[in-house]
Specification:
By secondary structure, the chain is an alpha+beta fold. It has helices at about 20-25, 40-50, 55-60, 115-125, 135-165, 175-195, 200-210, 220-285, 295-320, and strands spanning about 5-10, 10-15, 30-40, 70-75, 80-90, 90-100, 105-110. It folds into two domains: about 5-255, 2-Layer Sandwich (Beta Polymerase, domain 2), CATH 3.30.460.20; about 265-320, no CATH class. The protein has a seven-stranded mixed β-sheet with strand order 2-1-3-7-6-5-4, sandwiched between helices. It is found in: Cell membrane.
């Protein structure tokens, strides 16, 4: 257990108490608690479930990796799966969060210490006057932090796509392989990111639809703001996917155009080379023909080779095939 907090009448009164005292704390109707678990063991999760009366299926899902972002409702509590996202270099990092929400308790389960829970705590403390609204306030701060982090992923991806668009017609063929690799990395990150970011609309929207059963009416505009952010994230992600797909398609079109140019040149040179091959083949026959064995035959074949080759070369050059 990393952190525990006890609020009474909206005021923080206690921190870092043992998890075994949670049941006693939540028995007070004027109090609510938050505690955080990082990479917990199965025994830790069983203890949490017993202290708060959590459904066994929710506890089981919290112990599994790579759950889809979702909101599950049980008789006594809600269970939320969400993902925090970070972009480091070309690598997209996803950190799974399992959240239990009861009437007067919020439990966060992190799969990795890479998620900065202290930043969430600072956000709560900055708006401590709103803590009188209970667990819904803590949940809003957590979800708002997660969704705001999505913009920190999309902004650099957007800038990388703009760079790829600018480089598309500027660099030479030697750079195209690196450009295509970067475009592929951006596309892969967007696909992974979309899987965890887009379902957050359903999570926050589901909380709003439950209304006063979960959210204090005073906090509804704050949750609506988070929901608007999730819509923005989803739309931005889809637009970036279209842009990077266009970049990849443009790369493919450039390769097709270059291949066509190469084929035209190869075909043109083959046609030019075919002229002397045809003429010398004709004059190499073992049968009598005009000029056979005479100097005139040699000069006639030479003139035809030169004239035919030059004419074909100029023809293909004029059509930009060479």
């Amino acid at each position: 257990m990393d952190r525990t907090r006890l609020y009474r009448d909206g005021v923080l009164v206690r921190e870092n108490f043992p998890i075994t005292e949670v049941a006693e704390c939540v028995a007070d109707p004027d109090a609510f608690v938050w505690f955080d678990l990082c990479s917990p063991t199965d025994e830790d999760m069983v203890l949490v479930g017993r202290e708060l009366g959590l459904h066994e299926l929710a506890v089981e899902d919290a112990g599994k990796d790579r759950q889809r972002p979702k909101l599950d409702a049980y008789d006594t509590h809600l269970f939320i799966t969400a993902y925090a996202a970070t972009l480091t270099g070309r690598s997209l990092g996803l950190i799974e969060l399992s959240i239990f929400v009861t009437k007067n308790a919020l439990v966060t389960v992190r799969e990795s210490p890479d998620f900065d829970i202290e930043d969430v705590v600072r956000r709560w403390d900055a708006g401590s006057r709103m803590a009188r609204h209970g667990v819904a306030y803590l949940l809003h701060g957590l979800l708002d932090h997660v969704v705001d982090g999505y913009f920190g992923v999309l902004q650099p991806l957007d800038e990388r796509i703009e760079e790829l668009e600018e480089e598309l017609f500027e660099n030479g063929p030697a750079d195209r392989r690196g450009q295509y690799r970067r475009a592929f990395d951006v596309h892969r990150n967007l696909v992974r990111f979309r899987r965890v970011a887009t379902p957050m609309r359903e999570v926050v929207g589901g909380l709003l639809r439950r209304g006063a059963d979960v959210i204090d009416p005073v906090l509804v505009p704050y949750y609506q703001d988070v929901y608007d952010h999730t819509l923005h994230v989803a739309e931005w992600t889809d637009s970036l996917r279209e842009l990077v797909d266009n970049v990849r398609q443009a790369h493919q079109n450039q390769q097709d155009i270059r291949l066509n140019e190469i084929m035209k040149k190869v075909t043109s040179w083959a046609a030019v080379i075919a002229v002397p091959t045809l003429i010398t083949g004709f004059y190499g026959q073992n049968v009598p023909y005009p000029g056979s064995g005479e100097p005139s035959g040699f000069w006639a074949s030479t003139i035809m080779i030169v004239v035919g080759t030059v004419l074909l070369y100029r023809l293909f050059k004029s059509r930009d095939w060479l």
